[in-house]
Amino acid sequence: MSAEVITFSLLNGTLYGMLLFLLASGLTLIFSMMGVLNFAHASFFMLGAYFGYEISGIVGFFPALIIAPVLVGLFGALIERYGLRRVHKFGHLGELLFTIGVAFVIEEAIQMIWGRSPMDYQVPEALNFTAFEIFGTGYPAFRLFMLIMSVAIFAGLALLLTRTRVGLIVKASLTHPEMVSMLGHDVPLVFMSVFGVGSALAGVAGVIGGPILITQPSMAAALGPILFVIVVVGGLGSLAGAFIASLLVGFIQTFAVAIDLSVADVFGLIGVTQPPAALGALVSDIWNVSVSQVGPVIPYLLLVVMLIFRPMGLIGKRA
Amino acid sequence: MSVSTLDTPARSANTRLTAALPWLAITAMLVILPLLFSSNSMISTLNYLGTMAIFALSYNVLLGQTGLLSLGHGTFFGLGGFIATHAILHMAEAGLSFPLPLIPAIGGFGALILGVFGGWLASGRGGMPFAMITLGLAELVYAAAALFPSIYGSEEGIAIDRMELGASFGMDYGPTVDIYVIIAVWFLICAGILYYFSKTPLGLLTNAVRDNAERIEFLGFSARRVRMLAYAIAAAVAGVAGSLAALNFEIMTVNEMGAATCMLVLLMTYIGGTKHFFGPVLGAIVIGLMKIWLSDISPAWMMYFGLLFIFVVMVQPAGLAGILMDGIALARSGTAAAQAPMLALIGLAGLMTLIGTIILIELAYRAGLDAPLGPEITVLGLPLNTGSVLSWGLGAVLAGGGIAAMRPLLDRLDTLRHTLSQGETA
Predict the structure, then answer these.
(1) Beta bridge pairs of residue B251
(2) Which domain holds residue B146?
(3) Which of A36, A79, A86, A97 is the mutation pick for testing B, counting most B CBs within 10 A?
């Protein structure tokens, strides 16, 4: 691998990882708060992308970057207030099933409104130029903008949670809801707000991720399982773990795409060019598989390996 | 795991007869159904429903019995199907003669072995982690399947010829009815085994793990092992269902073990009702028929599935079987006549909401996805137009009015039931 490929993969891996963390952070916050994994989280991301596409067509990209996440956040808060809170009495299973139903209906509703084919969601004109050149290849400004946005939101969220009174109340509500409520804070409102903010973060990720990852009805189903891998690998309910796991998955997926090496190449080094026929069809299947083809499998493999050797995740409490 | 205190005293012949009655009724129904609906397409539908019923029953071992939400049960349906197709292909190639009806046993056994391994990975914790781990495992198998075209076929899947293994049991397995016989017999076997399993000490332990896993650990059982065994048994029966699907359609594709299948079995089982043994069968029949018939008449059928699922989750967690049982209990209580007018009003409000919702959804699909078909659409016999405010208004008024009327009506029903029960005790 050349230095050029490594540099670009590092940049893109960080970018993808930060985008994943925008989603995973909201998911983790909601999980540690309600003990429920919001299955519809990736659907909020998709809603963000579609809202972003629709609104930026009317008022332009930058206002849409504000309006679309606010809409998604409001929608999320409503889902919490009138849906999740009602099924709370049926336990976590009921809540999880409810979010699965919501994800299902959102995907259908999006197909109903925007159709089944991908949207023509373009990078905005103002950001459609080359930011800098390294090794003679330009790096698009929009990607740099995405990177800056995600890092800024990450920093803002970290400051909010660790340095402000709001963060204090939220963190206290996670661990000691009764005590916080005793002190006169409206805990259900805190929960609703965190759910709303988490959804809005997914919405932001959708608006800035939409033009790069294709805006289509299957984007939620494609990203959702990866998010769950991140949350489990990082350790359930751990923000720091989610951060590390997001970057890890981001790097794995971008580097895997860049490596064009197959089993045949490896054996070619020692002079074996044909799969030994005696080993059957299975081996000849694997023979031509390259690392980039294995890319989509690696996160799930990581999950399984993690479960075998460290079931609590990277940074997680003991089960 | 011998729990001798659970041994019940010998039952009287009378209770045995009552216990056997549902099974006799089901057997009779399985015999009568193909005689009533003898056309080829109807038999084909029955085959599909039977397969799905077995699949949903297997899922309920996890969801209803052990309280585990698996998001990857479709994997074992698919793997069982692929094991069966490869068994048929290899035996046909080797010129072996093997009775086709026993092929699902091979698929089921293969799925059992894989289920033990999957269960070992997934069953460390219940609840949320279990759901995510099963999702991850299912995605792993699905994503990895693309790397092995010789096992899973590529896009078009692996096709078989079910007649290749030759005739046995007096059938040559060409006609769909022959496959119906196989599926019906396997349905009885699987339902019988699973019902018996739910009464064994291990089956009762799974219930205990669902209700309080920690306490089970204190009693000296391993909750993990109980979950693992439940997972493996569910996987085996799902494998049987997958093999039957392979025999029925004579093809197996990777999509059969994708997220859609995992989702479908969850919908069927939960909508049918997880708290009654035959609830999942009911769900498989209702959802299966909806899938076949509704997809012909409406583009919105998936939307209806989703909304029905949310409705069941929010309002009626006992599912359709729960509604049925409530109805039976009401009829037996002797107060049905006194409650009838109120129930009729509630039914009316529900019907209004339903019709209004259907109108709105059909209009929305015509205005969005199906806009090229023109603005005019007939819903439930009503001529509507996506351009007219009147059409949208009709749907909104019906749906909104129904929902608004429902709350006071339900309150009144509660009051009525309260006074009725007080009258009883007085």
Answers:
(1) B159
(2) 16-302
(3) A97
A304 part of contact set with chain B, CB < 8 Å = yes
Placement of tokens 């659907």 in the chain: A43
- Give Cβ neighbours of residue A81 (< 8 Å, ≥ 6 apart): A192
Whether B303 sits inside 8 A of A304 (CB atoms) is no
A283 and B CB contact within 8 Å: no
Digit-coded pLDDT (tens) for A217-250: 888 888 888 888 898 888 877 788 888 999 999 8
Same domain for B421 and B277?
no
Last residue of a domain, one of B247, B282, B302: B302
What number is the ipTM of this complex? 0.84
Q: Is A98 on the interface with B (CB under 8 A)?
A: yes
Q: Do B300 and A112 touch (CB under 8 A)?
A: yes
Which residue of chain A comes nearest to B266, CA vs CA?
A97
Distance CA A227, CA A220 (A): 10
- Residue at B310 is within a domain: no
**d(Cα A114, Cα A236) in Å, to the nearest integer?**
35
* Residue B128 domain flag: yes
Tens of pLDDT, residue by residue over B77-136, are 999 999 999 998 888 888 777 888 888 999 999 999 999 998 888 887 777 778 888 888
Closest chain B residue to A231, measured at CA: B132
Residue B111 structure tokens: 């799925």
Q: How far is it, in rounded angstroms, from Cα A165 to Cα B57?
A: 51
A31 interface with B at CB cutoff 8 Å? yes
Instruction: Give the integer Cα–Cα distance in Å for B323 and B317.
Output: 10
Q: How many domains would you assign to chain B? A: 2
Give the bridge partners for B376, in sequence order: B385
- For residue B2, is it within any domain? no
* Angle between helices A3-34 and A187-209 in degrees, nearest 10: 160
Residue B313 counted as domain residue = no
B306 and A115: CB-CB below 8 Å?
no
CB A111 within 8 A of CB B369: yes
